[in-house]
Amino acid sequence: MLKLEKYSMGVGDRFARQGEAQLEALVRAAADGLEVVPVWNKSHREHTIIGTVPGDVRREADAAVAALGWSGGYHVDADHIGLGNVDLFMESSDFFTIDVADFTGEVAPEADIEAFVERYSEFVGELKIEGLDEPLTISRDQIETAARQFLLAIQEAGRIYRHIEAAKGAGTFITEVSMDETDRPQSPLEMLFILAAIADEGIPAQTIAPKFTGRFNKGVDYVGDLAQFELEFVADLAVIRFAIERFGLPDTLKLSVHSGSDKFSIYPIIGRAVRAAGAGLHLKTAGTTWLEELIGLAEAGGEGLAIAQTVYRNAYGRFDELCGPYATVIDIDRSALPTPDAVDAWSGAAFMAAVEHNPECEQYDPNVRQLLHVGYKVAAELGRRYTDALTTHRDIIARHVSTNIYERHLKRIFG
């Protein structure tokens, strides 16, 4: 079986221009004794908006690895796929994030639910799991409730997995099951039976992306109860370790944190927890690289700053269109956004200060940052004007991209 390394990082790149800069951050980490493998990821929605194809991501990854002489592992993720679009990614990807969040809450056939409850009725009572302070108290009704909420979704994941396996061959790719884009977090008890269902479907999942408590807004810090997050994260690690032993899931199975960019306040919690448990971690980032491009253009000044200001003006004017698809993962105070005319008067330093994620800076503006995060479509519409600027100011942008990943992400988790 193709195995995912212990620590991995999803490094999405909207415009497929920063692969080397992203990888340079992991080279720096490796020099510090921290081995983290890159997983370049890009969703079908992002490809459609920008006008790229999955093969572009593979070419970017391969080129970056060759240019830097990277000898470690690396992967290309078909991000958030379903049966309707997975075939587009078959040739280029060796990592598949199977997204079944839309199927949670849909009810499986009654016979399947009854069989599932019967199969796991042995867990009725108190179940002690190493790493949990208190045993899980489990009833048949709770198993049935979990099955009604999640069984159909996992059955869909099984159909998608088998479709990929038929095309690529068993053991030739890495599978993630994603359930993070749901209305509420999964409890440790629910996680236990989700993993049981994954095992029943024969899915050799190596990462699972649950929904955690709190807000995981795009490109900004975590919003929520840190103590509650830590309880949930530690509990999930314990349940995964139990499920590996009890259900025969891959020993590489680990948690995947989606929208993981810039969640500075929980990084120390995550780092402590995975080290204490001896567990792995997959941290998925994406949009921060695109924001670092804008920051680099602003620093460059001249035409670079003018492009960054144009992106803001157009995004501001198309707020509903751009923010609608991301409504559940952004919180923007529209009334607090500066006008485009005001932003046009900013210097490069002022633009950088507003967008760069430094909460200690008085000029940092999370509303501006989130709007620009979802505004990559307007940059794509600038065509060569935007991409030529990325080439012209390559060195400045690369410095920002690498520093962001290394200093703000990897060092805060593992430092």
Summarize the structure.
The protein folds into 2 domains: 7-285, Alpha-Beta Barrel (TIM Barrel), CATH 3.20.20; 289-401, no CATH class. The chain is built from 17 helices and 10 strands. The protein has helices at 19-31, 44-50, 54-68, 110-119, 140-168, 188-200, 226-247, 267-277, 287-300, 302-317, 319-323, 340-344, 348-355, 366-373, 376-381, 384-392, 394-414; strands at residues 7-11, 37-43, 75-81, 95-99, 125-127, 136-138, 174-178, 205-209, 254-257, 281-285.
What's the structural blueprint in terms of helices and strands?
Blueprint: E1 7-11, H1 19-31, E2 37-43, H2 44-50, H3 54-68, E3 75-81, E4 95-99, H4 110-119, E5 125-127, E6 136-138, H5 140-168, E7 174-178, H6 188-200, E8 205-209, H7 226-247, E9 254-257, H8 267-277, E10 281-285, H9 287-300, H10 302-317, H11 319-323, H12 340-344, H13 348-355, H14 366-373, H15 376-381, H16 384-392, H17 394-414
Parallel strand pairs: 1-2, 1-10, 2-3, 3-4, 4-7, 7-8, 8-9, 9-10
Antiparallel strand pairs: 5-6
What can you see in these coordinates?
The protein has 415 residues and is of the alpha/beta class. The chain folds into two domains: 7-285, TIM Barrel (Alpha-Beta Barrel), CATH 3.20.20; 289-401, no CATH class. The chain contains 17 helices and ten strands. The protein has helices at 19-31, 44-50, 54-68, 110-119, 140-168, 188-200, 226-247, 267-277, 287-300, 302-317, 319-323, 340-344, 348-355, 366-373, 376-381, 384-392, 394-414, and strands at 7-11, 37-43, 75-81, 95-99, 125-127, 136-138, 174-178, 205-209, 254-257, 281-285. The strands form two sheets. The protein has an eight-stranded parallel β-barrel, surrounded by six helices. Helix 1 packs across helix 3 (54-68), helix 9 packs across helix 10 (302-317) and helix 9 (287-300) runs antiparallel to helix 13 (348-355). The model has no long low-confidence stretch (mean pLDDT 97).
